[in-house]
């Protein structure tokens, strides 16, 4: 397995990305980072490492350009532009499938915070191309009417002390008509900084992706 750094062209934007994919990996998990973050998010990097240990490929990329990131630091608006973020995610997904030349590759999304909404909107658009979605401390409620169109098996993970986000996730969960699960990590806050909390997130995500991105999951 080797690491690769790429610039991903999506529309007029050039987005930095990195992926690792073993030849025998059953699937690729594409990360959609959360508010004010990037592909260098230590939490997503940790989860990606754990997924690779489980035999999965990973793609982390920046949803915003460097110029947009600088503007975002001042205004904080783009992180809630779900149509833009989901468009970038769809574009990066299509780029990955073309670049890797593995059209049969099973793809999943791991979304955090507002990135989870972008992942669900993209999954609704791409349909059967996306085999699974996992949300970590996400805002799936921001996916709006796309929730009812998601067919990809979806796992929502929320910290037990992140009470407002639990409420928002429960509301979104009820609207999902796909195979789904809701997990609460006891004692964890929004960023899962408590000892063992992020490890538990990674374990649950790895199990979900292993189940739904495996050959046994069907064509």
Summary of the model, kept short:
With 219 residues, the protein is α/β, with parallel strands linked by helices. The protein has helices at residues 42-53, 66-75, 82-100, 114-126, 163-175, 197-212; strands spanning 3-10, 13-20, 27-32, 57-61, 106-112, 130-136, 154-159, 180-185.
Summarize the topology.
Layout: E1 3-10, E2 13-20, E3 27-32, H1 42-53, E4 57-61, H2 66-75, H3 82-100, E5 106-112, H4 114-126, E6 130-136, E7 154-159, H5 163-175, E8 180-185, H6 197-212
Parallel strand pairs: 3-4, 3-5, 5-6, 6-7, 7-8
Antiparallel strand pairs: 1-2, 2-4
What is the correct CATH architecture?
Answer: 3-Layer(aba) Sandwich
Low-confidence stretches: none
CATH superfamily: Alpha/Beta hydrolase fold, catalytic domain
- Shape field: globular
Total number of helical segments?
Answer: 6
What spatial order of strands do you see in the largest sheet? 1-2-4-3-5-6-7-8
Please describe what this structure looks like.
With 219 residues, this protein is α/β, with parallel strands linked by helices. The chain has one domain: Rossmann fold (3-Layer(aba) Sandwich), CATH 3.40.50. 38% of the residues lie in helices and 24% in strands. The chain contains 6 helices and 8 strands; from the N terminus they run βββαβααβαββαβα. It has helices spanning 42-53, 66-75, 82-100, 114-126, 163-175, 197-212, and strands at 3-10, 13-20, 27-32, 57-61, 106-112, 130-136, 154-159, 180-185. Strands 1-2-4-3-5-6-7-8 form an 8-stranded mixed beta sheet, sandwiched between helices. Helix 1 packs across helix 6 and helix 3 (82-100) packs across helix 4. The longest helix has 19 residues, at 82-100. It is globular, with a radius of gyration of 16 Å. The chain starts with a strand and ends in a 7-residue tail after the last helix. The model has no long low-confidence stretch (mean pLDDT 89).
């Amino acid at each position: 397995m080797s690491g690769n750094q790429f610039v991903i062209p999506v529309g007029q934007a050039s987005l930095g990305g990195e992926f690792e994919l073993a030849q025998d990996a059953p699937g690729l998990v594409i990360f959609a980072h959360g508010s004010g973050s990037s592909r260098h998010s230590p939490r997503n990097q940790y989860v990606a490492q754990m997924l690779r240990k489980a035999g999965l490929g990973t793609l982390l990329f920046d949803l915003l350009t460097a110029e947009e990131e600088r503007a975002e630091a001042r205004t904080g608006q783009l992180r809630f532009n779900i149509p833009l973020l989901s468009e970038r995610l769809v574009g990066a997904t299509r780029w990955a499938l073309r670049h890797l030349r593995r059209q049969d590759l099973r793809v999943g999304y791991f979304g955090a915070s507002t990135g989870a909404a972008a992942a669900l909107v993209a999954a609704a658009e791409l349909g059967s191309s996306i085999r699974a979605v996992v949300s970590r401390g996400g805002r799936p409620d921001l996916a709006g009417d796309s929730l009812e169109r998601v067919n990809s098996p979806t796992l929502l993970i929320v910290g037990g002390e992140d009470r407002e986000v639990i409420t928002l996730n429960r509301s979104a969960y009820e609207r999902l008509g796909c195979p789904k699960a809701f997990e609460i990590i006891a004692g964890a806050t929004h960023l899962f900084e408590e000892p063992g909390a992020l490890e538990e997130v990674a374990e649950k995500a790895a199990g979900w992706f292993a189940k739904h991105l495996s050959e046994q999951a069907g064509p």
